[in-house]
Each structure stands twice: as C-alpha cells, then as structure tokens.
Amino acid sequence: MCVDGAADMGKSSARTHGQENERRIKANNREYNAQFRYANNYIKTSKYSIITFLPLNLLEQFQRLANFYFLCLLVLQLIPAISSLTPITTAIPLIGVLALTAVKDAYDDFQRHQNDSQVNHRRAKTLRNGKLVEEKWASVQVGDVIRLENDQFVAADILLLSSSEPNGLCYIETAELDGETNLKCRQCLLETAAMGQDDAQLGAFDGEIVCETPNNLLNKFEGTLSWRNQHFSLDNDKILLRGCVLRNTSWCYGVVVFAGKDTKLMQNSGKTKFKRTSIDRLLNFLIIGIVFFLLSMCVFCTVACGVWEWLVGRYFQVYLPWDTLVPADPTWGAVIIALLVFFSYAIVMNTVVPISLYVSVEVIRFAQSFLINWDEKMYYEKTGTAAKARTTTLNEELGQIQYIFSDKTGTLTQNIMTFNKCSIAGVCYGDVVDETTGETLEINERRGRARGGAGRARGRGAGLLLDETAQGRSTPAAMRPASSEPLDFSFNPEYEPEFKFFDPTLLDAVKRGDSHVHDFFRLLALCHTVMPDQKNGRLEYQAQSPDESALVSAARNFGFVFRERSPNSITIEVMGNTEVYELLCILDFNNVRKRMSVILRKDGEIRLYTKGADNVIYERLKATKGDVKSKTQEHLNKFAGEGLRTLALAWRPLEERGFAEWKRRHHAAALALHDRDEQLDAIYEEIETDLLLLGVTAIEDKLQDGVPETIANLSMAGIKIWVLTGDKQETAINIGYSCQLLTDDMAEVFVVDGASYDDVNKQLAKCRDSIRVVNTFMPHGPRPSDAKRDEEPNGAVSGRGANVKLNAPAVSVVTFRWEHNSLAHSNEYVSGGAHTSEPHEHANDDSNGFAIVVNGHSLVHCLHPKLEEKFLEVVLHCRSVICCRVTPLQKAMVVELIKKSRKAVTLAIGDGANDVSMIKAAHIGVGISGQEGMQAVLASDYSIAQFRFLQRLLLVHGRWSYYRMCKFLRYFFYKNFAFTVCHFWFAFFCGFSAQTVFDEMFISVYNLFYTSLPVLALGVFEQDVSDATSLQFPKLYAPGHTSQLFNKTEFIKSTLHGCFTSLVLFLIPYGTYNDGLAADGRVLSDHMLLGSVVATILIIDNTTQIALDTTYWTVFNHVTIWGSLVSYFVLDYFYNYAIGGPYVGSLTVALTQPTFWFTAVLTMIILMVPVVSWRLASARARGTLAERLRLRQRWRGAAPAPRTPSARRARRSVRSGYAFAHQEGFGRLITSGKIMRRIPHADAAFSALASLPGKFHARPSSPPPEPKAPTQNLDTVDL
User: Fold this and answer.
1) What is the arithmetic mean of pLDDT over 796-818?
2) For residue 842, what is the DSSP state?
3) I need a surface site. Which of 248, 258, 841, 1047 has the fewest CB within 10 A?
4) For residues 197 and 232, is the Cβ–Cβ distance under 8 A?
C-alpha cells in the first residue's frame, strides 16, 4: 500500500478565503485544522433563531405581493388629503395576517429545530488527549479520531484506521446511501490496523491526509496519507460515509475527513427549495390581475371625477368647497381633484385585493394538517407511528399529483426474503392444495390463516391460483391435504421459530432420506459465502445479501445446519451428524458469470456445486434423457409468474487427476499480471460444464402490505408511478411484476442498458419504433397522440378512436357486470371527460401499456440534452417506468426532468438518505418511517409509516384538501367582489367623490369577523363524498390533474357572479330608498340608512350562498354560518350604541320598516333563483361523479364496497434475478484466510449475483391471465 516517490503536497494552506482545491488534515490536531475553517458536524435545517425571527419573517412576508400592497395602502391612508378611510381599516387586517402567518412559521421552524437537535445530540466517542470521551455529534470536527461500535450510525465521513476484525476489515450497511441492505466490506491500511484499540497510540496518531474536496460521488475517493515518512494511497474502500451503519464489527476507529454539510450524504441531499403549490402560483397571477382591475376602476373613476368636477362640481363649491391644495382655476382644479381621487378610490376599493385571503388560506392549511396527523386509519400500530404533515403549506397539492416517484427497498418492499417454494428432481414443493377442490391456495392466504385466521379466503376467484396440473406440477399425490398451520421444526435444535413453511411433503422427504432432497439442501448449506457467528449462545448467519441468508436459513431449518468455515474447510451438520468438507476452491461471482461455485472434497470424492441464474445454469447442463429438465422449466415459469426470485442449483463430480491439472492452470491465471479476470473467467468456464441439475429455489421478496392494491388504485386515479431504485435491474423488474407495475398483458417491456451514448440512442430509437408499430397495427386503445382530440363531450371516442374495441369487456367496479361498451361511458369526473393535460398518455388499459426499465449508466446518457426529447417521447408512452442502479442525484434529475418538460405535479416517496435529493426536488416529498433511519423523514413534507397509507393521503386527504380549497377560493372571491364593487356603482351617484357606501368599521371587519368563520369552516370540514367512497372510486381524484375546480375560468365566473350580486345589491335598495318615505312621513333616503340596508342584505346573501355551497354539515358549520349572521346584528348594535358609532340608529330604523323586508326578499329572490336554477340544471345535465354518487346514495342507501383489483396476475415468464451483491464477491478473501479470526468464529458477509436472460427473448408460454382489474363506470353505478 506504500506509494514510493509520491510528490510532496506542500505545507502551505490549501484553502484560503478563496476556492478550496484540496483538503489537508492533520489527525488529532484541531489547531492546525482550524485555519482552514472546515465545516463542523453541526446540521441546521431551521431558518430562524429567536433574534432573527422577527426581521427575517417580516422580510419574507412582505415579499408577498398582497402584503406589500397593503403596506403601501396603509402609508397612503396616513395622508389626510387623499384618504377617506381611517388607517385602522387596513392596519387591523394587515397586522392580523402578519401575526397569524408568523405564528404558523414559528411553529414550523420549531419542529425543524427539534429535528435538528435530535440529530445533533446523538452521542459519539472521540479521542481527547489519548482518552475516549463521549460528545455530541455536533461537536465532532474534521481531524478528530472517533470510535464506532456495532450497529452504530457513522457520524461523519471517516478514514478507517483500525477495526476489531482481522486484517483491518469491517462491514457496513449502506441503506441510507444507496438503498441496499447488503453488507459491504471496507479495509483499512495494515500499517494503521496495527494500532488496534490502543487509545494511547490512536491518540498520538499524527498522520497528515491530503484528499479531494467535498463532492457528491458516493463511490469515489482519492487521497494520500503521510505518516512516519511514508505516503499511502487512499481510495473509497478505506472510507466510511456518514449515514452508513457498522455491522458485524465490534468496533472500529477512524479519523474524520468530511463533517456536516461537507459529507457525501449531505452533498447528495440537494438544496432545500421553497415549495409552493400550483394554487399559490395561480393566486399570485390572479392578484396581479385583480390589481390591474382595481387600477382600471380607479382610472375610470379618476376620469369621471375630473369630468364631473369640471362640468358640475365647480358650481357647487359653496356646498362642496375644494381643498386648499386645489388651484382655483376650474380646469386645473378638476385635474388635481381627479388625481387625488385616484388614490382615494385605490384606498376605498382596496378590499378587492383580499389581504385576508392569505391568512384564511394559511389557517385552513394548518387545520387540514392536523386532520392528517389525527387520522387513525394512517396509524401503524406495529411501530406506533402516525402520519405527520411536516409542512402546512402544501396540502391541496396532494390532490393534484400526476407523477409518483418511488424508491423500492423499504418503500415498496419490506426487504425481507423468505424461502417460499422449490423444485427438486422435477417435483415441486411449497404449494398447499385445497383438499376438497384440488386447487392451489395462495401463499398469503395460508400465512394469514396460520397467524390466527385473519386472512380468511376472499372468495374462490380472488384466493385461488391456477390449479397445479395446469402449472405442470408433478407430485407423488395429485391432491395433498391443505395445511392450515406452518410445519413444526422443533425436532431440530437449531431451528428458527420465525421460519414458516407449509408443505409437509418436503419435510417428509427429508426425514425419509430422499437422496435428491438431501443433495439439494447439502448444496444450499455448502455453496455460499455466508459467515456463521455465535451471539448469546445462538448460531446466527451474516450474509451480504438477504437472499443468500434465506437459502442457508432454509437448509438449517430442514436439518442441514451450516456450522463453521475456515479457509480450507466447511463444516455442516446433517440431521444431527457432523460433516466436514475440504474447501478446494471458490469460483467467485461477477456480473458476467451470474453464478458462483465451490469445489469440495469429502471421503476422497471431489464435487463441484453451482448455483446461479437459471438461464446460465441451463446452458451448462449435461445432455440427459428424462423429463426432469422440462418439468423444472415448467416450475421455473410458474415461480417467475408468481413474482418469485428463482435460482438454479446443479453439481458435477470431478476426477482427481483432471482437477489437479485444472487447479494448476487456475493458480497460474490467478497470478497473471495482465487480464487476470478474463483468464480466470475462461478457467472457470472449463470446469463449470456437464452439470447435473438438482433443482431450483424460489424466494419471495416480500412487499409491504397493500402495495399492489395501492398502486392499482393510484393508477386508476390517473397517477403515473415511476420506481427509481439503487438496486440491480433484475430485482427491480421482479418487484415491478410483484406490485403490478409490470404485467403480462403489456405490449412490451423495454430494457435500456446501453453503456455508451450511441448504444442508448439506438435502443431508444428501437423502443420508439416498436411503440409506433404496436399502436399502428395492434391498436388496443386510442392512439396517444389522438386521445385528447378524439374525446367527445359525452366521454365517447370519435374519429380514429371510434373503432377501438377492447380485447375483453371490463367489469363494472360496483355492479360487477360485464360491460361491452364501457369505453363509451368512461369514468371521467365530469361527463364531458377529464381532459388530460398529457396527450401522450393512455387510459389505464393494461393491454395497451408499455413499460421501460432503464439502467443507471444508461440514464446518464438519457438525460443528455441531445437525448432528452427522445427519452421523454418513449417514457411518456409507457404506463410504468423503472430506473435501477441510479444514484441519489440521478433520482432528483429524473424528477426535475418531468417537472420541467411536463409541467406536472410530482410526488417523491422514499425511506432512506439516498432518497433525500429526490424528495426535495419533487413538489411533494413523502418520507416513510422505516428501517433506514430518519433522513428521508427529516427532509420530507409528509411522513407515513407504510406505502399503503399513500393512497389515503392522496385519494382522501389530498382530494378533500384540494376540493375544499377550491370551493373556499370561489366563494371568497365572490363575496369580496360582491362587497367591494358596490362602491363602484355608488360612485355614479356621488359625483365620483370616493364616498363609501358602508360604515368604516363595517369595511374593516367585513372579512375579519362577519364572513371569515363560515368560509373557514367550509375550507376545513367540507366533503363532497366520504373517505370510503373516495377510496372506492379513485377516479374522483381526476379533477385535480387539470385544475378543474379552480382555474382562471372559475375565477372569472366567481368575479362576474360577485359583480352581478353587487349591482343587484346596490341598485334595488337604492331604487327603493331613493326619495323614499316611511308610513309616518319620515324621509328614508339618507346615506347611512342606505349603507345599513345594503350591508345587511349583503350579509344575508353571503350566509345563504355559503349555506348552498355546504354539502357536509357539521356542528361547526351551523355555529359559524348562523352565528356569523347573528353576530353581525350584535356587533353593529354594540359598536353604534355602546361605543357611539356614526351609524347609530340607522339599522334600527331600517328593520322597523316593511320597506326593508320587502327589499331584502326581492333582492334575495333575484340573486338566488338564477344560482339555484343553474346548479340544478348543471347537476342534471353534466353532473360530476361525486354528485351522481351522492344522489344515488341518498335514494338507494350506501354503496357496496367494490372488489379490490386482484393483487396477483399471470406474469411473463421472465426469470427472477437472484440478488447477489452487485459488485464482485469476496471468495478470495475466504480462501486466503484474511477474513478469518479463528475457527469456528468468523464475522463477515459476502455474496454473488445473477440476472435475467436476454432482454427481448420470446415469451415462453404462460398461463392465461385473469380478467383485468374492474373498470369503474359512471353510468353503471348501481347503489
């Protein structure tokens, strides 16, 4: 490891006030390292401190256009010459808005402070003056030597100095970084490993490290260590990164190289962006439009005032004297008055720009966040974790999601592998057959019943797989009794209680000594790189991949216990008898071989045992007669069709002389200086031939509960789901089939794995051509490019799409009737069709779907500016997209690409630190409180405990939040325009003098008291349908995709309605009270009386309007709606009588006159009849799905729960890849003895990899698919 003649890196500072170009560190020397001002290990995600909160928060708030606008208005109102209103009318609402927003921001930042504190206060052991002291993570600095212990998170990026393992090895889990729970090996320099755990030596370590600057490359590190006049090269294998977890290593020491924000984990986290919803962006645009509308009214009134003053006003100066500022000249006087009136009307009509809108929006979001937090149906009892809204500003965006980007490991899967089934000598084991029907029961059903009967049969159609004879099963008995309980392995003292297997025939074969079965389990117990360990007197296994651990564990439970290994031997225990095998050679795994082998000698007999991808093993089998190979192939197809991960097992005997010759050539190849790997592969190929097939294994990578159903429902809601994972391609494809992202019904599943730009370009071109061919000659549905324009108002498809016939009729999700014309009654939210914003996308018809799998190294080229468009053209035609072996930053780049190109609302969900950049890049980030730490949760906007809760978060809370916010905004703008524009109509009758219709106090508190609570109750509690109905009918979610419920058109409708209301509100009372007399002869035509009448009818109208808008009545709605009406009269009397307001007696006089009641009734009739008539007509002619559901439920009772789409479908018979580690295995370390401490104890973990066969292989015959998932149908909803 010593680097002779390495150049001296110099002693001058590598980092000054300018750019850092290298990093220079001296261990245990804080004074030296302090001069470079390296980042400390303190993490800060909060925005404010106690001192900076007020100025920074006010600065942020006044960056909002509306707040700054009202601040300017407040300044103008302080000028007496132009203000006809007291500054209080603006000051009260502005202060209220600023205060409430500040409270909300303070609460959010307090939560961030708590999370930061939790991370920074983790404990780390640091060497100080040769002694270990316990410090906070935040106190760790670059150059410190720290001690880590088993199962502890790595506090910073450290250079490994020594460890408890032989030769300075240690093992880490990198789930936080790349999503993989496979153990990875790191090894320190042998020179530093000699220090062991001697604190005195480690405390005196004064090595100088010169290395690269902070960067985000997880798999690369370059540096040099200078120590004791020697220079040692450093690479990534000697670095432990922050976020990793130390595994199977009692302790290790390291020197901190990067800390805090400089660590590679934080460098990959991406920048925290201020997230705003699409409604926020629309509101900003609308506010600008409202300002221009206000200015246009002010300009009109200015011109009209100038004309009136010049024509009429100058002759009435005796009664209406001009201000002293105004020139005596009539022309100039009129001009100056008109200019002053411009500002006066800007003040009078300022309420058309609603300052209370923002505070109302924030209050509604705040309350909705608590509804999410308190939802017991998103509470995970197993871990005691509830859903949490970590931000209060994005709730309605949850109702507009178009793309979901999901991690795989820990998000879709539990990352728990279970030995599920196997095939041995042509006999399939693992299925449980119903003794009455002969049909194979689904494994999930069996497990559910075995665990207390919770998973009762869901009906014969949903719970049964195809029968065993159709699956090619060859069994001693055609119909074996079904076992409702897992097998009892207690006869074996080394059995594991958590191991479950249900087929008794396999255990019977073991007990009666079936030679094929014994050879099968011997291979599983011998052919691996698992390390045994004794913990608390219990034998435990440490494996680099969970698959390998599951196989060795299965052999253990069936009585073939792997006991110990040495560099030259493997010891197993077979049914209580110890067997020792001499280990002659390990033929290690690599990505090309996709298999591993061991060569063993026992009792003079040499055998080669092999396991690997089935296509690789089958190519090397010896030609034999018999049907074992064909039957095993049928079982392979069956296992792959069930989404299981398969692995083929084989063996061959070797002659002593032939092996000796092969071993000599193998030794020469192992010592070759050039092309060593290629020579070894060729040597391996020579001996791994003429194999004899033993059987195949089938492992289940368990999905989280409810994942297929969740994905099916989200897809029915029109949401596209992409999986972005750091796992290997074969594993990602398997999970895709398991959770129904990939199905056998798809037209094609493309794989893009080219290593160069040209290869990727060609593959994308082929994918595009294939899509065009399929869409041209096999049109299972409307062409994507024509999908939008071919839609007719009734939801049917016209033009070229009119001749489309589906291959099979769809089943109504409610009635379960086969509907042959279901396409003509597509389940759009409105009968006019849910106009998709993405013309390239298909309906959710499996038969018309494509899927694409993109590898990480190919994705680099796909994201190249020259290939971006072609890549997008392909993926947007695909129903499912899976990107594997991607880095954290690549995940974020994919999200950014869709955001930029499609202008779509995106959601990213993950559970590890490798998902943080994706979570921050998406419009909505969701963290899963899983097994990989809290980094994803800390960076997220919402956190949930299980992926299945995502459908409730979106389809229920997201949809409700969007629906409520849209309804709130429509009503809010309506009431504001109805209130404000009354001043404009009055201007025509007051000489455009900026005289107000209403009392100043009424203007001040109209939005704050009289109308605020009803609309807040609407925004918090309103529901159009129940949560159960929202989940039963995912298509209810569709309006959010195209902003149907609130957009520029809806805004204009609301404002026009408000303007019409204001016109009626003003003109009818004005016409009534103009020159009006009471019965006793008193004059009623005074300004204050008119203002009181108009204000009262306005409040009555607002109350009636919101009562019509409310479909879900709670006690809060009743109290706020009717209470606000009552409070108007109470507060008016209190203000005018108790405080002595100017309008004292006006309302009393009005209420005592029949004229008022006649006017009020007439005005309300004129206002309400058109509204009610329009709504009834619209509901009858163009009723939404929600309206139809409410109507039919009202008349026919509650809707029956529709059948959940089948979670298991026939799949294309693609081999399930075995999850070896992606990098080369560590067989050499085993045989060299470097990882051995002493026998029988060893502490390490290694593995190997297999993958699918070729990408475009002809499809083997597979069982006929089940009927498609039920299709929802508007016109067949039968409740």
Assistant:
1) 34
2) P
3) 1047
4) no
As a three-state string, the secondary structure of 42-88 is CCCCCCCCCCCHHHHHHHHHCCCHHHHHHHHHHHHHCCCCCCCCCCH
Task: Please list the helix, strand and coil fractions of the chain in percent, rounded to the nearest 5, in that order.
Answer: 45, 15, 40
Estimate to the nearest angstrom the gap between the alpha carbon of 874 and the chain centroid: 23
Residues 76 and 194 in one domain: no
DSSP 604-617: TEEEEEEEE-HHHH
Which residues contact residue 817 at a Cβ distance below 8 angstroms, ignoring those fewer than 6 apart?
811, 1276
Tell me which long-range contacts 287-294 makes (C-beta under 8 A, separation of at least 24). 287/65, 287/66, 287/353, 288/65, 290/352, 290/353, 291/65, 291/69, 291/353, 293/352, 294/346, 294/349, 294/350, 294/352, 294/353
Shared domain check, 144 and 105: no
- Report the pLDDT value the prediction gives residue 179, as an integer from 0 to 100: 58
Residue 666 is predicted with a pLDDT of 87
Q: Is 438 left (phi over 0), alpha (psi -120 to 50) or beta?
A: left
**Is 611 known as a binding-site position?**
yes
- Inform me whether the pLDDT recorded for 1049 exceeds 70: yes
* Residue 1084 pLDDT exceeds 90: no
DSSP label of 787: T
Tokens found for residue 832: 């006019």
| CA atoms within 13 A of residue 721's CA, in its CB half-sphere | 26
Confidence (pLDDT) at 3: 39
Structural Rg of the chain based on CA atoms: 37
Number of domain units in the chain: 3
Would the annotation count 866 as a binding residue?
no
- Pure H helices in 277-329: 278-311
Q: Are residues 104 and 144 in the same domain?
A: no
Integer Cα distance of 871 and 764 in angstroms: 7
Is 891 assigned a ligand-binding role in the annotation?
A: yes
Predicted TM-score (pTM) above 0.90: no
Residue 680 near residue 646 (C-beta atoms within 8 A): no
From the centroid of its chain, how far is CA 694?
A: 43
Each residue's pLDDT tens digit, 1014-1024: 999 999 999 98
3-state secondary structure 1183-1225: CCHHHHHHHHHHHHCCCCCCCCCCCCCCCCCCCCCCCCCCCCC
Do 84 and 144 fall within a single domain? no
SS3 assignment, position 654:
strand
Domain extent at residue 515: 417-434+486-702
Task: Mark whether 166 and 88 lie in a shared domain.
Answer: no
Bridge partners for 428 per DSSP: 423
In this prediction, residue 225 carries a pLDDT of 93
CATH number, domain at 170?
2.70.150.10
- In a domain, residue 169? The reply is yes
Residues 612 and 686 in one domain: yes
Query: Is 395 annotated for ligand binding?
Result: no
Higher pLDDT pick, 680 / 1203: 680
Residues 637-696 pLDDT 10s: 888 777 678 889 999 999 999 999 999 998 888 777 677 778 888 899 999 999 999 999
pLDDT reading at 401 higher than 90? yes
In sequence order, what DSSP letters do the residues of 365-411 get, joined into one string? HHHHHHHHHT-GGG-BTTTTB--EES-SS-GGGGGS--EEEE--TTT
Q: Is the dihedral of CA 427, 431, 435, 441 positive or negative?
A: negative
Given 144, 157, 178, 407, the catalytic residue: 407
Which of 706, 720, 727, 719 minimizes the C-alpha distance to 915? 727
**Alpha carbons 1087 and 1267: distance in angstroms, whole number:** 73
| Cα distances (angstroms) measured from residue 325 to each of 82, 277, 299, 301, 333 | 11, 48, 21, 20, 9
- Residue 90 marked as a ligand binder: no
Same domain membership, residue 591 and residue 658: yes
Over residues 971-978, mean pLDDT = 93
Residue 759 confidence (pLDDT) above 60: yes
Distance CA 133, CA 340 (A): 73
The DSSP code for 255 is E
pLDDT at 271: 60
407 is known as an active-site residue: yes
| Spatial distance between the Cα atoms of 535 and 986, rounded to a whole number of angstroms | 87
